[in-house]
Amino acid sequence: MVDSGKALKLAGIRYRQPGFTLTLTLALAPGETLALLGPSGSGKTTVLKIAAGLLSPEAGRVQIGGRDVTALPPERRGVGMLFQSYALFPHLSVFDNVAFGLVERGWSRKAILARVEELLAITGLTPHRQKRPNELSGGEQQRVALARALAPRPPVLLLDEPLGALDLRLRESLLLELKRVLRAEGVAALYVTHDQAEAFVLAHRVLILRDGRKVQEGTPEEVFQHPSDAWTARFLGHKNVLGPEDAAKLGLPRGTHLLPNAALRPGRGEPARVEEVLFLGPRLGLWLFQRGVRLYWEGPLEPIPKPGTELPLAIDLQRAVPL
Amino acid sequence: MDRGGDSGQIPSGGEKVKLRTGPWALVLYLFLGFAVLWPLAAVFRRGLGPGLVQALADTYYWGRFLWSLEYGLLASLLVIALAMPLVYALRYRFPGRALFVALLGVPFVMPTIVVAAGFLALVGPRGLLGVNLEGTVTVLVWASLFYNLGMAARILHGLLARSGGDLEAAARTLGASPWRAFLRVTLPLLGPGILAAGGLTFVYTFASFGVPLLLGGYRYATLEVEIYRLLAYELDFSGASALVLWQVAVLALVSGGYLWAGRRLTGGLAPGALAPLPPRQARALAAVLWGGLLVVAAPMLALALESLQTPTGPGFGNYLRLLTGDDGVGLSAAIWNTLRFSVGALLLAAPVGLVYALAAARGSRAADLAGLLPLFVSPVSLGVGYLLAYPKLRASAFILVLAYATLAYPLFARSVIPALRGLAPELLEAAATLGAGPWRRLFRVELPLVRPALLSGAALALASAVGEFGATMLLVRPEWTTLTIAIYQRLGRPGLANYGEAMAMSMLLAVVAGLLFFAFARGAELG
What we know:
heterodimer; A: 323 residues; alpha+beta; Rossmann fold; CATH 2.40.50; 2 domains; six-stranded mixed β-sheet; four-stranded antiparallel β-sheet; 17 strands; 28% helix; B: 527 residues; mainly alpha; MetI-like fold; 74% helix; 1% strand
């Protein structure tokens, strides 16, 4: 069962709870970031806990670095985990939080000092090294949790919605920082989120989970451009998912279709009625009616049309994606 | 009180809406001055002279003191040692868990004389078990365990639930074994809880009265018992005052430590996320826990059984005799006394407790601490203080009501404070923007929202008054005989009839306290 090409492998995992069954197989290459994307209740966190050894699966194997660790407790698996609540130890300073795992692994004091200082510098926490977690802002706590998980140089890092508790502005800047740190450390990461934008920015590959099952897996571009079904398309943020009837009205062949944003070109073509105009700053969001089908388009447009007026709209049916 | 507040002006900032502690705190301080500090000052004046020197030179008193210390320490260590595995077990689901958790709070409201009677029923000279443990350390430590194990479990469980499984899980993923995770994460987080629970157990045990008086004999009398004996048998006010000072010094020291540790605590058994167990293990855990509870609480069961034993065989004879009350002070008079003093105490304790709760919940740290004072002045000491400071009041039953209210109002307040603190400040701000002044906000928003806490506080206060024993022993006159005193008198008289009546009365008190607890105070924060 040795498969040394993989940093982490979950093979034939099954885990059951009343009203919920998780069945999953996934693999993570060294240095790769895989986003586990799904709505709440889809079993994302359960997958992480099984990988970390905090939950035991009913069936299936867990391999880390080609070694079967299914029977091992969390402390002997050597994975890093970033908790949604951060789970920082309130009785320890920032420094001691980050050093926690190194102490457990029996590093020398000198090595601990060097490694912790290095991580504090990378995450910009050096001025806070002696503070307690409750003296830090949410973003700072998040960075401590990241530094703590990375400190022992785990081959695999598990991240449970690490930006979930932060406000929008902070999320954006921390997202980029997280990406930078993950790439710099070269760690393989399994990243759980319900936010597709986060997954797309951060991950090499995306795995979409629904009700404990994998619906689709691929690069962010593949998944976004060719969602496997209507549910996935809507979950990823597509607005123009047309049922068979609407598709027929626009002249598409039978079946459900996805019209990507790029298939719509306002400014020429058949007139469409403007139902609603959303001013989004640099872009506009338009809800339009053409041939009795309600369509959404987003992009820059001058001048701004008024609701109730008509706007020419060309639809490139070649770009439609059958689902 | 502050009557100028209701002038209809609408406060502008959030802080103005909540902060009005001054007048409330002042009322509290006035009450404390009258009911605690002045009596204590009288004890100081009396005890600080040659009395203290004599007491300190007396090896007999040193013996009492060292035994009280030993008793408190022994009980604290044992309570902590048992409470730790208990709170770990309570993280799991097992059959009957909800009832088990509720029962843990019951001893808190059990009158000390009732518990003493229960131990006599189980392991007294006429006890069910046939083993006489009267006058042994075993029975005294057992009683302390009965009283404090549930309290300690509630404190520690609250901390453990809040610290959550996430922290332990984080430690595990960082390479710590379960034992290392306990050592490096759980134990440091529980540290303050261990200190607080141990400190509180020590305070309650060190100054315990009813159980050592009835079960300890001369050998294991605590300082508290000795103070009572000095006054009741020898009328030695100086000696008693000196011992009170001695006791107060120790209690102040330990209480200070408890308060320091307690600043980081919330009590109560938070439901949290319970870990599931396979059915067989869950049943095994339930068997162990319920079995343990049965052992610790066996005296109460023995009490119920013994109350049904009459000279002519099993039956309700003891209860029926109480109703007819053919000898001296019958049950009806004792019930009437207990009722009127307790209700009177509640009428005084509720407003004082509310004033205290408002001052503390609105951020007055000084009031928060000062209001706890009566919890750490023992009932007998308080009685000594009243006798010294208010000799004229000795003829009036108000002195009993005052003592009951003083001992009871912190219980009322401690149950209301968390509820008041939990109110969202936006609610008061909203009420203010809708035109409600401070008084209207209090009566239309705050008090209605904390009604359950007010009820549980009142129930705890009432239970404490109904079961009060130490102060009553010092202050009571024959015509004021309460249920607790009536029980004590009957336990001291020979004959199976008296014993049976004492058991029946104790059972009655236990049921009243239990009903008060289960009806109103089950979820209350205790201690």
